[in-house]
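Late entry, written up from scratch paper. The run itself happened at the end of the previous shift, but nothing got recorded in the book at the time, so transcribing now.
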Amino acid sequence: MDTWDIVVVGAGIAGVSAVRTLAEQDGDRRVLLVNGERNLPYKRTRLSKQIAKGFSPAESQLEPAAWYEEHGITIRTGATVDEIMPGDRRIRLSDGSEHRYESLILATGSEPLYPQTVRPHENDSFFVVRSEIDIERLTKAVRKAKQILIDGMGVLAVEVAAELRELKKQVTLVGATPQVMPRHLNTRAGEIMEELLTANGVKLRFQEEILSFEPRKKGGYTVAMIRETGPYDMIVFCIGVAPQVELAKAAGLEVGLGVVVDEYLRTSDPSIYAAGDCAEHAGGHVTDLWHAAEYQGMIAAKNALGVSTAFDDPAFRLKCEVFGSYFFSVNKPRSPLEYGIEERETGSRYQCFYFDDEELCGAIMVNDKDRAKEYETAVRERWDRERVIAWFIEG
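Output as recorded:
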């Protein structure tokens, strides 16, 4: 039985960030990275942006194969963890092998959600965008499809719609919300996005709900919604994700919406940490942004090495670039009316700033891409209103 100083389970950005940090901080440790996918770890956020041209895992690798060997990281590609045995600090892999660990970092990520109208055995009849295999299935099927329905109004749905329009497909977005990307865009930015999508041939069905799917003899489905019914060759679900917690739950770790962690990303077992989309922080908070997962991987690795580092939950940006326009959001308040708001719209550029006691706490912008990093910095450093106006509006 192999013994490792640290085992990292999951090779998304949280897992890879963890092993990068381990390599930088202490290259003498024995580290195992368990990668459940068939290819080397890749940048998952490119999946929804490279449907039209074709997604290449090799071109999107987070690190080349040689990097893992050069830094003493053992990577098991194509293997998954079947069981965690915290009592004697062991894991069992899908190939039957068992491994001991001193510390374990869970970076199992999340999995796509399906609507309640779809039963589990029907999942393979529909499409999601979460892994390279998902994109392979989708791009193969889309060749023969004309009418495509996307269930969802978030950033993933918007990016998939833009890619399918580039392939000249007829695309309809349907969702229960009254605007596009309500989690990250305010009303005006949502209107700008709506106008952009409509101008580029994407049909939008707001405050709508799918009631049923009826298979057609020639393929595809007749989809019944609250206000209309129509035929579609393909249906893509982009309605959100759920943390993957089954492994942790079976191991007896505390689990809520995600794997519950403290401020140092420790789980209920002090030798096990959790980072990224699978981790649940104080107040039931689960992050879902790529850079947030990357940051947590680094924090978990430092703590696993004994370098006490608290997770301070900094604000990270979300960006969406479709049809030649750039949308950006960082730390949009859940209750915006509680804050001071400064808005400006000049030509194609739109800006919205949220202030808490005259200090910047959130921002949304459209088509000011060159200064995107400055927006994020300004929010994190809580610039005062005068400085924000001078730099972003008057400057």
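The chain has a mean pLDDT of 96.
(Scratch paper discarded after transcription.)
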